[in-house]
Amino acid sequence: MSPLIVALDYANERDALILVDRLDPAACRVKVGKELFTACGPAIVGRLQERGFDVFLDLKFHDIPQTVAKACRTAASLGVWMLNVHASGGSSMLRAAREAVNAAAGGTQRTLLVAVTVLTSMNDATLREVGVNSSVEDQVERLATLAAECALDGIVCSALEAGRLRVAVPELLRVTPGIRPAQDAGDDQRRIMAPAAAVAAGADFLVVGRPITAAEDPARALSRILSELAGDPVDPRKSE
Ligand SMILES: O=C(O)c1cc(=O)[nH]c(=O)n1[C@@H]1O[C@H](COP(=O)(O)O)[C@@H](O)[C@H]1O
C-alpha cells in the first residue's frame, strides 16, 4: 500500500468527490480536514469509505480531556482509519483520547490515533511567539516522547525530524505533511521535504495536499509522486 495520504482541503463535497473519483484507493488514502468536515459533516467520511478509501480524519482535537475523549470516541465510531489530536494538550488529554479510541473499537478494527507535535507551518521563531524557547527539533522530540508514553500509535511531524524520531521513539508511526516535490512552492509550510527524501528520512506516511489538489491534472500529479517514490526518474518537462 502506498504511503500517500491526499489532503482533501476543499470547501464542499462536490469538489472533493470530483478529485477522489480520479484517484485509485489502492494508490493513496485520503484526509478529511477542518474545512471539508465543517462544510459536509460526517457524511463525507461515509461517501469516501463507500468508494473504498481509508480516511484520516484530521480534526486535531485539543481541549480538556473529557471533551477530547468524547470527540475521539465519536470520530472512531465513524470507522476512520486514523485520527489526530494535539500532543501539546498534555498527558491527561492524550491518555483520555487513547482510552476513548480503544473503547470505540470494541475489539474490531482499531482506528490509529496520532498526535500532532509542532505544526509544519512553524519554525523556531513562531515557537518563540507562543512561549516555547526550545528549537523545533527538541520540542518535536519532547512531544513525541509524551505521545509514546501515552501509548499513541504515531505522531505528525515534518520529514525533517523523521530520522531523529525513528531513533528516539521507533514504536511510533511518523506521519509527515509539508511534502513538496522539487518544482512546487512551499506555500505556508515552513518545514518541507520532497517525497522520496521524506521516505528515505524515515516517514511512514506522506500527507500531500496542494501539490496534488492544485495541479492541473491531479491524478497525474499523484502518479508522478508515486513514480518518484518507486525510484523512477522524474522528467521535469512533464511538470504540472
Ligand atoms: O495534521 C495534519 O495533517 C497537518 C499537520 C501539520 O503539522 N501540518 C499540516 O500541513 N497538516 C495538514 O496537512 C495538509 C498539508 O497540505 P499541503 O500543504 O497543501 O500539502 C493540510 O491539510 C494540513 O492541515
From TrEMBL:
A Pfam match: OMPdecase
GO terms classed as biological process: 'de novo' pyrimidine nucleobase biosynthetic process; 'de novo' UMP biosynthetic process
Active site: D58, K60, D63
Enzyme class: lyase
InterPro entries the record matches: Aldolase_TIM (IPR013785), OMPdecase (IPR014732), OMPdecase_AS (IPR018089), OMPdecase_bac (IPR047596), OMPdeCOase_dom (IPR001754), RibuloseP-bd_barrel (IPR011060)
Cellular component terms (Gene Ontology): cytosol
Catalytic reaction annotation: orotidine 5'-phosphate + H(+) = UMP + CO2
Molecular function in Gene Ontology: orotidine-5'-phosphate decarboxylase activity
SMART domains, sorted: OMPdecase
Keyword Lyase tagged: yes
Domain Orotidine 5'-phosphate decarboxylase: 3-225
Pathway where it operates: Pyrimidine metabolism; UMP biosynthesis via de novo pathway; UMP from orotate: step 2/2
Binding site for substrate: 9, 31, 58-67, 120, 180, 189, 209-210
Entry EC no(s): 4.1.1.23
Task of the protein: Catalyzes the decarboxylation of orotidine 5'-monophosphate (OMP) to uridine 5'-monophosphate (UMP).
Protein name as catalogued: Orotidine 5'-phosphate decarboxylase
